[in-house]
Amino acid sequence: MDTPTMPRPEHPAPGAPADEAAALRATILHKLTYDLGKSRLGARDRDWFIATALAVRDRIVDRWIDLTRATYQSGAKQVYYLSLEFLIGRLLRDNVCNLGLVGTIRDALEPLGVDPEKLRIAEPDAALGNGGLGRLAACFMESMASLGIPAFGYGIRYDHGLFRQIIRDGWQHEFPEDWLNFGNPWEFARPEISHTIGFGGVVEAVTVSEARVQHVWKPGETVQAVAYDTPIVGWRGAHVNTLRLWSARATDALKLEAFNSGDHIGALSEKVRAESISKLLYPSDESPAGQELRLRQEYFFSSAALQDLVRRHLRVYGDIRSLPDRVAIQLNDTHPAIVVAELLRILVDLHDIAWDEAWDITRRTISYTNHTLLPEALESWPVPLMERLLPRHMQLIYLINAFHLDEVRGKNPDDGRLLSSVSLIEEGHGRRVRMGHLAVVGSHKVNGVSALHSDLLKQTIFADFHRLFPGRLTNKTNGITFRRWLQQCNPGLTGLLVEACGAEVLDDPGALEKLRPLAADAGFQQKFAAVKRANKQALAALVRDQYQLKIDPDALFDVQIKRIHEYKRQLLNVIEAVALYDEIRSQPTKDWTPRVKIFAGKAASSYHRAKLIIKLAHDVARVVNSDPTVRNLLKVVFLPNYNVSLAEMIVPAADLSEQISTAGMEASGTGNMKLALNGALTIGTLDGANVEIKERVGDENIFIFGLTTEEVAKHRAAGIQGAAAIARSRRLQEALEQIEAGVFSPDDPTRYRDLVASLRASDYFLVTADFDSYYDAQRRVAERWRNPAAWWQSAALNTANVGWFSSDRTIAEYAEEIWNVPVKRSPDNR
User: What keywords is this UniProt entry annotated with (predicted)?
Assistant: First the structure.
């Protein structure tokens, strides 16, 4: 069923000149007829979408080619952004808005009887990411284009991307996300741009002279990386960059001799093995085969990216030694860390650069963004797997480590603990290559993604590196693209902001500050509340039509939308819902605030505890939503298959933003920024970017609870059993007893017994320790909601004070302090 139409902006884009709209209409009809082979009468919404996308793409290509040529002619330094994820979502509205074609498209399609909103819905949602990491990469690509920074994004063109989440009887099931079934009209296939990627084989030492031995890697298997390019349009269409995604192809797609002999399946075995690399985002790595595939994916796109940028650099500049002056490589998290060894291999083995010079070039070219403090997310690979799959790289990593540890030992003699801490090889439970360490050693700058996270990097996992390399670790607080997360997904609020702050708010996030004096104005509050209610009505219609559940748009929409993970503590939210449910039933005459708890998010396919939490949310929802004694004062909703498009519906409708991770575990978060920008108040711990949001919106406009990072560390040091916290809290004890006893799972009373037992015995994420503080904070939320003037003042001040969290600001900081590239226009677009 189609998604309900988002509210129209109060200040719609002006109509286009008749000749411009007519020209675009003619192009769309031409594409429909001659590219798709469809007539107007036979065309469906998807056909109209593809024809319109192709027509819009035509408007991009000339400036894309011209700007790319100009970059090389001017010798401008380019940024190469390597990310395993690019959660770009739907692009039609993004490109139309950035090109200033909103009115033109509407006027071109209206005489044809075509609704632009239906075309937006017809576009597949490119699920090439898992969540914040991939969405950040997409925001950064758009901001680099908006700021005129020449850039390439490099990633993988997954056939299926992240799985499609289907909920059956409350359980998550994963199905392929077939976003490419009908093609992708935004991309250009580049079969002529193909690079050979090697795996396995042997390394031979070839004597070149008495003083020199050259190492030659002879891979046992090769795969072709084929390029697909998508133009990324900046704001106002001033600049266009390239997102180049790689698709894996077998070198020999069909063994003809085997096929003719009757071995039809075996004849395709190499094709299947090769193409599995770009088949699926994040294949399960529970098995050794899954681990190998993940490593193959990471090396595949990293090597293709380096080969590609070196080829381009040599074609234009001729000398690879000038690479750091013309190229900045940014590693988005640890996935592409193998780039350090791969660039060194290219320099030493293929271009005969001496080791010291090659290492200097490598470090001056590469920088690394860390997104996590979780050791498992830093990635480490078993040495035997690396030696078998990437033998030459393993040799180089050993050499890097030897020189690195010699330098450390020279400055810190007799410090065995330090050597063990900073070694690239972990010697504990089986020898493993620490990819995070490799990225730190091989980069000239390493940044965290919020002030708290960057400080914790220096104090915890990279503390010794911070002491060894003072100044290398820095901070770049994340940001979001206001064009998508305000102007496009919330046109009603955008129109109100233009009315209140002037049209400059469309270009300058800092202009949001003009809203501050109006936040206490009753008339403005009414307009602000009306926009929010319209967005809530749209979301309520979606829930009613697609999930047969009626929710009240006048209730408080309490939203937690993010990847399902124990540290993000959806479990804490669900337990609080149970406690609130009990209180509403036991005190029916109390003035309760009507509330709708909205969850959305996917659990990793192998993360069984996260899947169980999803099931619990559904079990609680089934009981609560069907209980007439609650009188619609509480509803619990889990919206399946969370993606960018669903977020674009939920974010403008949210009243309360749940950012409740265990303090010290969320690197930054960007959902917190999107929700605050759209006028949602945050309930959260002092974690990630919540700290900086609190500083900007003010203590009175955010609801902070729970243990601090320092208190979490002390609590864990003293023991993480939750039994004592449970014993101190009547509400928590009763809620857990009901869950444990099967009140919410009568079909399987023992379903949650182990879950509750684990909270008593080993509550690492401190759900029980923070429960009472969280429950009390929620009651403060309810009290504020019952005072509309106070609530809407706080909501407006959230919007007014988060302009700093623009990804334009973040990218400008990267450009100035890490990449050393100029910004053609300032991040506030003045």
Answer: Carbohydrate metabolism, Glycosyltransferase, Pyridoxal phosphate, Transferase
Catalytic residue among 335, 363, 458, 568: 568
Beta-bridge partner residues of 190: 227
- Whether 371 sits among the annotated catalytic residues: the reply is yes
The C-alpha atoms of residue 570 and residue 585 are separated, in whole angstroms, by 23
Q: Which helix (H) or strand (E) holds 199?
A: strand 188-199
Looking at residue 9, the DSSP 8-state letter turns out to be P
Distance (Å, rounded) from C-alpha 791 to C-alpha 809?
29
- Residue 174 structural domain: 76-89+125-337
Q: Is the pLDDT of residue 272 over 90?
A: no
Catalytic member of 670, 709, 768, 810: 670
Confirm whether 279 is a catalytic residue.
no
> Considering only CA atoms, which of 811, 495, 481 is closest in space to residue 644?
481
Say how many domains are in the chain.
Answer: 3
Beta strand 366-369 pairing with 445-448: parallel
pTM of this prediction? 0.94
- Is residue 119 located within the same domain as residue 241? no
Among candidate residues 404, 562, 597, 618, the one labeled active-site is 562
Do 107 and 81 reside in the same domain of the chain?
no
Candidates 444, 563, 565, 751; catalytic one: 563
The least confident of 7-11, 15-19, 330-334, 714-718 is 7-11
Q: How much is the average pLDDT of 236-243?
A: 95
Summarize pLDDT for 566-579 with one digit per residue, the tens: 999 999 999 999 99
Q: Is 635 among the residues known to form the active site?
A: no
Instruction: Give me the DSSP letters along 581-646.
Output: HHHHHH-TTS-PPPEEEEEE----TT-HHHHHHHHHHHHHHHHHHT-GGGTTSEEEEEESS--HHH
Q: Which of 482, 416, 480, 471 is nearest to 446 (CA)?
A: 471
810 is catalytic: no
Q: What is the pLDDT of residues 36-52, one digit of tens each?
A: 999 999 999 999 999 99
Pairwise CA distance, residues 473 & 442, whole Å: 13
Buried b / exposed e along 715-740 (16+ C-beta atoms within 10 A): bbeeebebeebbeebebbbebbebbb
> pLDDT-derived band of residue 7, with 50, 70 and 90 as boundaries?
very low
Alpha helices in 224-349 (DSSP H): 256-260, 269-275, 288-317, 323-326, 339-345
Residues 685, 548 share a domain: yes
Task: Tell me the two tokens of residue 268.
Answer: 């395709």
